[in-house]
Amino acid sequence: MTLINIKINGKELQVEEGTTVLQAAKKVGIEIPTLCYMNLHDLGINHNPGGCRICVVEVEGRRNLAPSCVTKVWEGMEVKTHTMRVLNARKTVMELILSDHPFECLTCAKNGTCDLQKLAQDLGVREIHYQGEQSTYKEDNSPAIIRDMDKCIMCRRCETMCNEVQTCGVLSGINRGFEAVVAPAFEQDLVQSPCTFCGQCVAVCPTGALTEQDHTNKVIRALADPSKTVIVQTAPAVRVALGEEFGMEPGTIVTGKMVAALRRLGFDKVFDTDFAADLTIMEEGTELLGRLSKFLKGDKDVKLPILTSCCPGWVNFFEHQFPEMKDIPSTAKSPQQMFGAIAKTYMAEKMNVKREDLVVVSVMPCLAKKYESQREEFAVNGNPDVDFSISTRELAHLIKQSIGDIKELPDEDFDNLMGQSTGAAVIFGNTGGVIEAACRTAYEVYTEKKLEKVEFEQLRGFEGVRSAEVDFDGLKLNIGIAHGLGNARKLLESIKKGESHFHAIEIMACPGGCIGGGGQPLHHGNIEILKARAAALYKEDEGKEIRKSHENPEIIQLYKEFLGQPMSEKAHHLLHTEYFDKKKKIYIEK
Amino acid sequence: MSSIHIKLKEKDCQDIKEICESFNNDPGELINVLHKTQEHFGYLPAEIQEVIAGYLNVSVAKVYGVVTFYSFFTMTPKGQFPISICTGTACYVRGAEKVLEEIKKELNVNVGETTPDGKFSLSCLRCVGACGLAPVVMVGEKTYGRVAPEDVKKILEDFK
């Protein structure tokens, strides 16, 4: 590695060849402000189009200012990062960006978490000297994501997430000059595009151009309606991220405080999606073993590998991109939908409430769950199994709006019957977690032996595509894991070509799994935050008394009282689903 | 949700396929493929962009992005005699804007549109390299130089 000698603000230093001025400045403790730039290098993502010009610096001997995010160091380079000329230029650039940005900050969904707002403040912009026309576009209201492109600043981070990380190919920069904007093909709405609603574009949008479809007001209205019984379920990944919205350290486990807050918000019952995650393992695990034993007996018709189906972003992905493989994933519904289906039958009966008077709210780290809850097949006579799905961020807003903070709340427990869960369920939020949970149960069912060590360390980690061997008492199972849809695509292509040797594959749409979901507190590309959340979930698992789904007493009770056996007719009807071919067809006239 | 169907003739698809293959289905050749395809069909409607995206293995959003970025590409069919008026610097300062207004008035179309009879379409371009003749108007293959607004009617007569 060649080392290069440079000077930043008169300070000499050596950096590796190929380093950008932005990275070099960081080494001497100077954070050059950036806007379009996005560094998710742990996920293999580097987005530096050099478009916004906020990060300019002065380079000795260079006539114009240099964008530090794309300017590489050279031997003897002398850089000045905050001269009068630089500061004025940054301010001017900011003013020009703001001159084509709506002044709705106080009522914008991103108020307080907006990168543009923060930067304007940091740069000390107090006046905008440029006035003129502002570009306007139609608003796109999908079931999960709202696109308000009047607020787009063309940083194109969303495009990188959509095309390079998730390989969905929905968003692209279109038109030019004043009309330039990021949009789906033919400026159609997201629902008409192959969008998976994973929400990774929303997670990286620096402004309010991309936000989630906010259901908090609908939840407040339901809670205020005396004729409704309102129950709530919370996904595993929410409890290790919600605290961040209240200034706590990433990875703080706030399960008990979250339950206390939900109870104070007025929910009649506070239940856990983790319960439904255990139920998912019962169904998905049984399906896996069923297919596996047929395969081992030499049945040529059996489809392997079996793919997990708990992630709705991933389901949308294969329905749009790989519809020819739609019979490979497990037919098991996602935990959110299993919860809804059981709540509106078994629980409604137990609580003596009519289906239409029971409102099921879910708190999810995810935006695709909003879309999933509105799928027609997940409703009975137009009444959805899950009425409203809100994100971790929306729950934080709901709490701030009504009860303020969670820090001082006591730790409380979930309500009974759909509130108990195991350690296997809580790790669903991490990449590799679902398949680990499935292995814990499948091992014991298959071998009829007790699993002494429940942790399958080989399934854990942050690498985008992983493979591991799991030993079922002599039977070697090949497990594949992918997180991020671009990585999922790699595995799917290999299955398509017949090169895959896997028996089972877990896929999560978002980098890191649900802990990095599109509905989580914004992590601004800081992978350490994701790692802290992941570690917290494993810690929560370790602290659980019961760590295998099939040992959950409430699950045992549910099968005994209501469902019978896993994959029984009733279970099939309530807990399994089918998938649809959503690929655009080219219809050729003869 | 049902799939969206795209209607195209079998022959059209075959032609697009051949154009893409002549560029080895290389996504890096997208602009050249679009050029050839527009040359062949006269314009690039959504259906054709979808088919090209399929053969080159790029997203249709990207294809649309390129089509909308370059003013040369059009999604509406061009007229039998496409009118291009240069609004580059030289032509502009010598009154291209007034000539353009006159053509718009005479044909009752805006820039980017085609007359209902399919005869004329109107577009602007930037510099044809004949600045000595500014302002320049091209109708079909024919080039007219030093055009004044009052010449417009007579020029159009040539094609009626």
Percent helix range of chain B: 40-55%
Radius of gyration of chain A: 25 Å
Here the CATH topology of the largest domain in chain B equals Glutaredoxin
Give the beta-strand count of chain A: 23
User: How many distinct helices of chain B?
Assistant: 7
Strand order of the largest sheet of chain B: 3-2-4-5
* CATH homologous superfamily grouping of the largest domain in chain B: Glutaredoxin
Helicity level of chain A: 25-40%
Largest sheet of chain A: 5 strands, mixed
Percent of residues of chain A in beta strands? 15-25%
| Strand coverage percent of chain B | 5-15%
Using the coordinates shown, work out and report the CATH topology of the largest domain in chain A.
Rossmann fold
- Tell me which protein chains meet in the greatest interface and how many residues each side has: A-B, 27 and 26 residues
The top level CATH class name of the largest domain in chain B: Alpha Beta
Strand order of the largest sheet of chain A: 2-1-7-5-6
State mean pLDDT of chain A (0 to 100 scale): 95
Q: How do you describe this structure in short?
A:
The complex is a heterodimer of chains A (590) and B (160). Chain A is of the alpha/beta class and 590 residues long. Chain A is built from 18 helices and 23 strands.
List keywords for this structure.
heterodimer; A: 590 residues; alpha/beta; Ubiquitin-like (UB roll); Alpha-Beta Plaits; Rossmann fold; 4-stranded parallel beta sheet; 18 helices; B: 160 residues; Glutaredoxin; 4-stranded mixed beta sheet
Description:
The complex is a heterodimer of chains A (590) and B (160). Chain A is α/β, with parallel strands linked by helices and 590 residues long. Chain A has 18 helices and 23 strands. In chain A, a hairpin with a 4-residue loop joins strand 3 and strand 4. Chain A is globular and about 80 Å long. The N and C termini of chain A lie far apart (61 Å). The model of chain A has no long low-confidence stretch (mean pLDDT 95). Chain B has 160 residues and is α+β, with helices and mostly antiparallel strands. Chain B folds into two domains: 10-69; 81-157, Glutaredoxin (3-Layer(aba) Sandwich), CATH 3.40.30. Chain B is 43% helix and 14% strand. Chain B contains seven helices and five strands, in the order βααααβααβββα. The A-B interface holds A 163, 168-176, 183-186, 192-193, 580-590 and B 1, 3-10, 13, 46-47, 49-51, 54, 58-65, 68-69.
